[in-house]
Amino acid sequence: MGDRLGGGGTAFVYKGRDSLLNRTVAIKVLNAQLTADGDFIAKFRREAQAAASLSNPYIVGIYDVGQDDDIYYIVMEYVEGKTLKEFIAQHGPISPELVVDIAMQIAEALRHAHQHGVIHRDIKPHNILITRDGQAKVTDFGLARATTTLTLTQSGSLMGSVHYMSPEQARGGYTNERSDIYSLGVVMYEMLTGVVPFTGDNVVSIGLKHLQENPRPLRELTPNIAPHLEHIVTKAMLKEQSKRYQSVTEMIRDLGHLSGIGGPPVEPSKGGRRGKEPADVPRELEDTYIPSLKVDNMSPKQRKKLPWLAMVSLSMFLTMLLVGGALLYVFWPRPEVIVPNVVGQSLAEAERLLRRDGLNPTIREAEFNAEVPPNVVIRQQPPAGRPVRAGRLVELIPSRGPELLEVPQLVGLSLLEAQLALAARGFTIGQQTAENNETAPVEQIIAQNPRPGFLTERGVPIDIVVSLGRAITEVQTPLLVGLTESEVIVALREAGLTVKMPINQEFHATVPFGKVISQLPLPGAAIAIGGEVAIVVSRGKQARVTVVIPADRLNENTRVEIIVDDREGRRVVYQDTHSRADGDLHIPVTGFAPMRLLVRINGRIDREEVID
Asked: What CATH number does the domain containing 50 carry?
């Protein structure tokens, strides 16, 4: 395997050589953290094989999908160039003509994939390569879908994807071809402006903006953008799937109009409907005179029949009535009253109190309030204590009680998807516990309280249970030989094991003092979690001392002593008498290395030596 080209939370990419066909290839090796999950591997194989069936000039070709022990890899077409993300970073906002050209190529890749039942689900500039001659190639088909649920929990990986995530992906809903169209619209937005439409401090805040906010209009960031191009991007990024392009083919058609290969450009929607011409008036109503309804529908000849003087007189009379009535209302002497305090009263009691004091209550739209019961007044206008004239209207705003919302379905979502779904609906995550589960992958929600569909107040915390994956009952015994006792304790603790007590100690010719000589079970053997591992620790070297008694000291009762000085102190380890018949003596001596040996014959020092 050759140079490393890049990598992230999902995989690492290396440059390689196909020796059979003599061509350069790219080899994508999956992250070991993902390959530890059997369900993911099965899904990855299905999706990668489906993606391998795609053959299109705008899609990076997949040559092979394989496995070497626990290493899973994909052999792909090697593309010389850079990612679209790098291209945007270097060139800033891209010209509209080039944006349309690149978008057409990406859309053609998506159309080919969608026709074969493959949805990308992670369209972003990082997954689009631009060759040296300007051709766009989309990569990671199949892999994006297979890793969706696992990589959602990897913040570094997700931060690159959440900027381009469709609203339905953010809420954990159903995704289809229109999800890819939304992401392509975000990519076009970034190409035209140099920035993504939504930013935030974390993935949750960005995901909520995809659900709830509209991006800043393109014409504010790129004033000279053609209205038709802005319309295409805006339509692709609509939050409701039913209002977006229903297929990539539709989007390609509109892009083709802009590039001059699809006929006249599509007019953007004006947002309204033209009014209809008035219908013909039935003959039996033609002679009926209804000034308030038929004046505008009369023919010029009929209008002339209406005396203009009568119209002027009628207008003046109505105006005088209105002005006179207003003056009469304002200046007619009425007593003043003090507005009573009706906040906290029921609507019926508030109306009774206001009418008692000569005021007229009017009820406005009720508001949600978690602290005030329904149909109880929470505000009034004018406020209590203000002097007003009798007959004044007093607005009452009653409570609707706490806002009850339906708890969303969280079981089956990843932890991040659950956070987004709850935040979008006004809830928060409450107590979070974790349990082992034989079927659910790590960090998938397996239980919740309250249950889905339950109506409860906004802001109520929802308790969840998160999967820890399959329970681990056995582990492999780590290699302990050569470690110290303290290192052994740490290694076994990390593996979920313990040291068997007491610890045996033996002298050893080669293993230094304090290091492990042997272990049982052997390294790599399966052992139940919490099991014990027996070890034997070296006490140091065992030496054999040769004592030659000089002839001038040898007699029938020659006394020989060997003294050892080591970490356990100074002590006599050998003491005996020998005769001429014993000859040279070979005495085994044990101690902790390094040790100092002192040989004495008949009380006199014969020699000293140090044994390491």
From this structure: 3.30.200.20
Give the pLDDT of residue 378.
95
Q: What percent of the chain has pLDDT above 90?
A: 42
Residue 410 — very low, low, confident or very high, per pLDDT cuts 50/70/90?
A: very high
Cα(207)–Cα(171) distance, integer angstroms: 8
Where are the extended beta strands (E) located within 132-219? 136-138
Tally the domains of the chain: 6
Distances (CA, A) of 206 to 187, 427, 525: 16, 17, 48
The residues facing 456 across adjacent strands are 405
What does the mean pLDDT of the chain come to?
A: 82
Q: If you write DSSP's letter for every residue of 527-558 in order, what string do you get?
A: EETT-EEEEEEEEE-EEEEEE---TTT--TTE
* 581 secondary structure, DSSP code: G
Q: Would 558 be classed as within a structural domain?
A: yes
pTM equals 0.51
User: By residue range, what is the domain housing residue 21?
Assistant: 4-77
For 142, left (φ over 0), alpha (ψ -120 to 50), or beta? left
The CATH number of the domain where 207 resides is what?
Answer: 1.10.510.10
- Return the active site residues: 122
367 neighbors 416 (Cβ within 8 angstroms)? no
Would you say residue 313 lies in a domain? no
How much is the pLDDT for 146?
A: 43
C-alpha span between 426 and 407 (Å, rounded): 9
Lowest mean pLDDT among 143-157, 396-410, 525-539, 550-564: 143-157
pLDDT (tens digit, 9 = 90+) per residue, 466-495? Answer: 998 888 788 899 999 999 999 999 999 998
Structure tokens at 298: 């009369």
DSSP state of 422: H
